[in-house]
Design a protein that fits this description.
heterodimer, A: alpha+beta, 3 domains, 8-stranded mixed beta sheet, 4-stranded antiparallel beta sheet, 15% strand, B: mainly alpha, 3-stranded antiparallel beta sheet, 8% strand
């Protein structure tokens, strides 16, 4: 077995003279060492031999540079580096020497650059999460947010949300939307308590309509979604657990499926675990992390509760937002036999609803950070320019020496 | 040139001189002998071995033999090395230092037991 191609390439890192003298014997010994071992031990031997070659290559080149330096005391020009490695080693040595000579400048420059880069990375992470990255749902470009009037103009929540009957009409009659789902906007943070095994804990519930997860294209990692029977008014109490809550409270134990947990003194059966990628709070409600999800029945009883739902729809293939909005307005304005709250459908793409609230703030933040980065660069250039004048003598000597 | 007793032999140098104390050897044989001397605890990796041999030639502790001096039947392809008188003197001095040190250690251990 002869040394592999990577080894032969690595041998080229050794100085030419040394390599010419010894390469045959080094290859022979490498082959012999590798041949003594098998399996994992052979891999370790190979890595150890490769490190040895790399270490000796560096040591010999540093020695050669030291020798050249001592011989160059007569101010003769140094020979041009023969290989790329010579040149890199020489540059690195010079860079470290310069940094050590002017440590205060090096520390200050590092701090300035660190500050600028740190701020830029932080703001970019936020911008990436809110503005650039696609929503973690199936074909997110088809998803629309449907509110009662324009969202975010200081109205009360009950004026922005929608009554159950309007959702049912939209689902049944819209041709521009393949489906419409909703979640309750009136589940308050920490309004449930879990008791039983472990310490009691305040939890936040989210109630969603039967088709909510199907519309978003979210599937549970364990268990299943709600069945038709479970989403009936007065149906069996069932819950889906948020992934984070499942890990925190149940240590990620899948055996919790089918078990009963006590929520507000009433038992509820765990039927599924949501995936970690489903971050409801991060997308729809930044201030309210959700711990578990329960069904919201679409029934006469819930309809009588008035405006309760935030709606999300999925546009049909080829449908446009404008046409879908007009169609929804027509459906909503049609006279109905029962008495209902007003509904003025207002549709925006879901990603715009999610990022829209923060867009202007983030853009301002990005501009501020860009300005900070610009100031950092300007400061650094000033420092280096000022330092350049101090190197006048050194440059003059180098010029005379031809270096 | 350094006086024999003033030079502290590095570990690799010491073991290579021990290997060459009796016989002239080529690199691979030296590496195997060192492995045997140390019960397998010191393996001279190829690049380190030949770098050390070059350094020792430079320090005049060993010499590289010319083709005509190679042992009988050996081709001229492999480089053979031989300890120089200076190398042998350094080895002897180092062995003496170690023996003295070992004697001191034994004496003190005996003193501690009694």
């Amino acid at each position: 077995m002869s040394p592999s191609r990577p080894f032969k390439t690595l041998l080229k890192a050794l100085p030419t003279e040394f390599r010419k003298r010894h390469h045959a014997e080094i290859e022979h010994l490498l082959t012999s060492y590798a041949g003594e071992k098998t399996g994992f031990a052979r891999i370790i031997t190979t890595i150890r031999a490769a490190l040895d070659i790399a270490w000796v290559a560096v040591a010999l080149r540093m020695k050669s540079t030291r020798n050249r330096k001592s011989k160059g005391a007569n101010m003769q020009r140094r020979p041009t580096p023969r290989t790329a490695i010579d040149s890199i080693v020489q540059d690195l040595r010079y860079a470290f020497r310069t940094l050590r000579r002017d440590a205060s400048l090096a520390i200050f420059a590092t701090l300035i650059v660190g500050l600028g880069v740190g701020a830029s990375v932080t703001v970019f992470s936020v911008a990436n999460a809110l503005l650039l990255r696609a929503l973690p749902f199936q074909q997110p470009e088809e998803l629309v947010w449907i509110s009662n009037g324009e969202w975010g103009r200081g109205q009360q929540l009950s004026a922005l949300t929608v009554q159950v009957a309007h959702l049912q009409d939209l689902r049944a009659e819209s041709e521009q939307l393949t489906d419409v789902a909703g979640y309750s906007q009136f589940d308050r943070s920490g309004d449930h308590t879990i008791a039983g095994a472990g310490n009691p804990e305040r939890l936040t519930r989210l109630r969603v309509t039967e088709n909510f997860f199907q519309l978003l294209g979210v599937a549970p990692v364990h268990g299943r979604l709600f069945t038709a029977e479970e989403v009936q008014y007065g149906g069996p109490r069932v819950v889906l657990l948020d992934h984070g809550f499942w890990i925190r409270r149940f240590s990620g134990d899948p055996a919790v499926l089918g078990r009963s947990i006590v929520l507000n003194d009433e038992p509820a059966t765990v039927v599924g675990i949501l995936p970690a990628s489903f971050d409801f709070a991060g997308i729809f409600s930044p201030e309210n992390p959700v711990d578990f999800v329960a069904p919201f029945p679409l029934s006469e009883e819930t309809n009588r509760q008035g405006n309760t739902l935030a709606l999300i729809g999925r546009l049909a293939p080829g449908a446009s937002l404008e046409v879908a909005g007009t169609e929804a307005s027509l459906i909503a304005s049609r006279p109905t036999p029962d008495r209902r709250n007003d509904f003025t459908p207002h549709m925006v793409p879901l990603h715009e609803h999610v990022s829209g609230q923060f867009r202007s703030a983030i853009v301002v933040l990005i501009a501020a950070v860009a300005l900070v980065m610009l100031i950092v660069c300007a400061n650094l250039s000033n420092l280096l320019l000022a330092r350049g004048t101090l190197r006048e003598k050194e440059v003059a000597v180098r010029g005379c020496a031809g270096g | 040139m350094t006086e024999p007793s003033a030079l502290t032999l590095r570990q690799n140098w010491f073991h290579i001189l021990v290997a060459l104390a009796e016989l002239d050897m080529h690199g691979s044989a030296i590496a195997r002998d060192v492995l045997d001397q140390t019960g397998g605890s010191l393996r001279l990796w190829p690049a380190t071995l030949y770098r050390t041999l070059d350094d020792m030639v430079e320090e005049e502790l060993i010499i590289e033999l010319q083709g005509a001096d190679h042992p009988d039947g050996e081709s001229g392809r492999r480089r053979y090395y031989r300890a120089t008188p200076r190398g042998r003197a350094e080895l002897a001095a180092a062995a003496e230092r170690m023996a003295t040190l070992a004697g001191t250690a034994r004496r003190r251990l005996r003193g501690a037991r009694s």
